């Protein structure tokens, strides 16, 4: 498997993880004010997931232009 194929598979996993984090944040917002104290941790998880996804996509773009 090439590096690009491996990265595409990783992006697929990261995308699923980011979408789950997005849904967790959305679900939390609908339940407010219940569990309001978990906002920072749920938001950080979503932020980290999308940051990892964006970084992987940038690396893929870089590899594809070489």
Automatic annotation (TrEMBL):
Keywords: Coiled coil, Nitrogen fixation. Residues 4-31 form a coiled coil. Pfam families: Rop-like. It comes from the Bacteria. The keyword Coiled coil applies. Belongs to the UPF0437 family. This is Rop-like family nitrogen fixation protein. It comes from Methylocystis bryophila.
């Amino acid at each position: 498997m090439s590096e690009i194929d491996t990265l595409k598979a990783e992006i697929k996993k990261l995308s699923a993880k980011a979408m789950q984090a997005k849904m967790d944040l959305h679900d939390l917002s609908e339940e407010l004010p219940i569990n309001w104290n978990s906002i920072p941790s749920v938001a950080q998880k979503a932020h980290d997931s999308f940051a990892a996804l964006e970084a992987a996509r940038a690396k893929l773009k870089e590899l594809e232009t070489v």
